[in-house]
Amino acid sequence: MTMNKYIELVDKKLDEYLKIEYPESIFKSMKYTVTLPGKRLRPVMCMEACRVFGGNVEDALPTACAIEMLHAQSLIHDDLPCMDNDNFRRGNPSNHKVFGEAIAVLAGDALLSYAPQTIIEQSKNLSAETVLKVLHTFVSAAGAYQLIGGQVADIKSEGAVWENIDGKEMLEGKTKDETLYYIHTNKTAALFKLALKAGAIIAGATDEQIAEMETFGQKFGLAFQIYDDIMDVTSTFEELGKTLGKDAEEGKLTYVTLYGLDKAKAKAQELLDDTRKIISKYNSDIFNGILDKIESKIK
Ligand code: GRG
Question: Domain limits at 139?
Answer without folding.
Answer: 3-298
